[in-house]
Each structure stands twice: as structure tokens, then as C-alpha cells.
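Trying the structure run again after the queue cleared.
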Amino acid sequence: MIKVNGRILVIDDDELIGRMLSRSLKSSGFEVRVETGAEGIVDKIKAWFPDIVLLDISLPGRSGIDILREIVEQRLPAQVVMLTADDTAETAVKAMKLGAVDYLTKPFNIEEVKILFHNILERVNLTREVDYLRKVHAVSFDREMIGVSAAMKDLRSTVEKMAAARVSSLLITGESGTGKELMARYFHNMLQDSAEARRRPYIAVNCAALPEHLLESELFGYEKGSFTDAKTDKKGVFELANGGVILLDEVGEMQPALQSKLLRFLEERKVRHIGGAENIPVNVAVIATTNKDLSEEVKNGAFRSDLFYRLNSFHVTMPSLRERKEDIPLLARHFTSLFSRRYNKKGITSISPAAEKIMTAYPWPGNIRELKNCVERLVVLGNAGDILAENLPRAMTGAQPAVDRSTDGRFVLPEAGISLEDLERDLIRQALERTKHNKAQAAKLLNITYDTLRYQVKKYGLEE
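Done. C-alpha cells:
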């Protein structure tokens, strides 16, 4: 198989030159598209994401210099090489000052063009590698799988073995807030074993955030004119993640019709754009996450059994925080350090032993997300010094219940007073737990509107 070295967009009104460049560059492993006009060309660049744009200076109706200026002003990542029949220094200097990386004059030697493009792509790839390494070294502790518990050690070991074997799909399940997406990123990082591998893309898609038809176009892409708003061709994220990893978050929310197309992709590793006829080979690792019990969803007819068995070939479950209590102090200290820096609370650097003991005993129904939100609030509202046991929320300390009822049904304010915010947060959390996060039912329990509940859930970080 010919290795694809990069995407080249040729913009030249001379069809003969376009065909010749397309044929020669494709034979050397480049992916090539040719455009003969300037109309809508910047939108086409945005839709196709070429690595290099070979742009003729003289186009019908518009100057290539103007197009170059627009590409630079919009900060599109494509490297622009100008093509001109004018072999004067003035033209080249003008193009280079505007942002072109090089220029070619007609007639040109096709072998020299290939060498030029290879050199440009090497520089681009080196820049991407440097950017990646900077991100890796600057990555926060949030991005790592923190934990000294046996459960986390076993989990890391298992995922590392799967990454070493280059498994093509992985299912990660677990309660909300346990760090499923962090584990997906950990798997992705385990693939970064060479200069080439470090450029592997990672793209996350929330399957619950988009309607079915939009999710399909997001995943598989579409052809121009395939529906009303399809003004240009668009690649789907399966193609954009080629060579890397795609995360399908909340895959249990995907509708059955789209589940069928996902299964076909997992079996064939090919995508077909909406409205297209071509099957495009794609090499991408698919990670699916869900807090649902997919085996139960299969029994209920909400999830395809064949897709479940395909995803379940390689499956790990994130342990809840109450199953890895040894990690709670470590996580709490990390978040304290993280937020003290973020909010410039340099005087808050640690947690008292008594507070750590209470935090370790607390069941953390919201898992790591709840712990993180709790520590953030303690740091923001705290003063200089350790986080103490008395600073912790009442629901955590096991203090006298915040509210009680008198004989006439009214709530009674305790003598010591209460934190209204803590009370409200705890009642909303209880309503969500009782209704298994059905917001409509939880809103009824609390006698508030659905929109009010949504606002409060977001405010207190209680999203499922």
C-alpha cells in the first residue's frame, strides 16, 4: 500500500496542469484535489483541511494574492505555495511577505515539486511533534490516571497491554465521574511510542449531545448537495481521526439506526459519506464509554446485541471512588494544589489529617468529579491555612441533619444554622439519585421547573 504523505490542494485554471499534477503527485502517495476556479475556495480549504495549497497567482475573477491574504488572515493551517508564470523577484517577494512558504514558476519540474512538498511536510510534522511534546510535558495531573490502589494498578496494566497490542476498539464503562474519558486519553497516550505515533489525532464526540442526523454527519461526513445545508464536502471525524483514536462518549445514547452503521464501520473499517458512493478506508482505534449497563440495554431492546458483543471484546470498568479509598487523599491533595495555583490561593496548600479521614470515609456518589468540585469550592471560599474538618460540607461530616420537620410539616431551621447552598445541592443530588438522573422526575420531586433544575444541576456540577 502506498503511504499517503499529505494532502495537496491544487488551484489552477489550467486543467492540463491540474491533471498532470494530480496524476504525478498521487503516484507518489499524496492525496490530491484540483480546483480550477476561485469561487468559494477558502470554504473548500476549511472543509478539506489540506496540508499544502498550490495556488496560482492568476485566476479567473480573482487574484491568487488576495486568496493568500485571506488564508493568512483567517489563520488556516495550510502551507501555501504560489504558482506563477512571472519569474520576477518582485512577485515572489510579495507572496513570501504575505505568508507563502515558497513559490514555483511555470514551467516546473515535477520531481522538484515533489521534493519541495516533502520538505514542507517534514517541517510541518516536526512542528506538530514539538507542539505535542510541549503539551505532554505541560499536561496537568488531571490527565493522568492517579492512584496507588490495587484496582487502579490493575486497570492501568490492563489498558497498557491493550494499547501495546493495538486493539482496534475498547469499551470503558463505569459510574458517572469515575474518569472514563481520562482512561481513554491514557490509552491514547500509550500509543505514542515513536515520532510518527506522537502525531496520532485524538477526537472526542459526545453521542448524547447531537440529534441522530447531526451525529451521523459528524461521524461519517457528507457530500456537497446531499442535504439542504450541505454547501461543501465535509469529512467526518472517523476520517479526521485516521491513524489515531476517536472517543464515542455516552455510546449508550446512540439510536439503533446509527448503531447499525457504527457496527458496519467497526467490521469493515470503511466510511461512506452521506450522499456519497465511495467507501473510504480508515485506520482508527474506537473507544466507547458509557455509564449504562449495556447488557441490560440489550435485554431492553435499546442497544443492538451484535454491536455490544463487538465492543465488549475489550472491556474495562472504571472503579468507583468508594472502591479505591486509598486514592482519595492523593486525589484531594492534588486538587488542592491545582486549585490553589489556579485561584492564587497560595496559603491553602494542604488538608488536615482529620479532614482527610472524613473525606476518605465519605461514599462520594459523584465520584472523582464530586471530589474535584468539592475541593475547588473549599479552596475558593477558604482562607490561608489547611483545609480543616469544620470546613467540609455538613453532608460529609455526618453532623446533625440539616433540616427536620415540625408537626405541621414545615422545615425547622437548626439552632446552629445551615448552609443554604449545601442544603440545596444535597437535596438536588438526592432527587437525581432517587430518579436515576431522570431530570423531569427529579424536578417534580423538588416542585421546580425542568429548566430551573437544569440550571441548578450545572451550577453545582451534578451532571450525570
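The first strand starts at residue 7 and ends at 11. Worth checking whether this holds up in the mutant runs.
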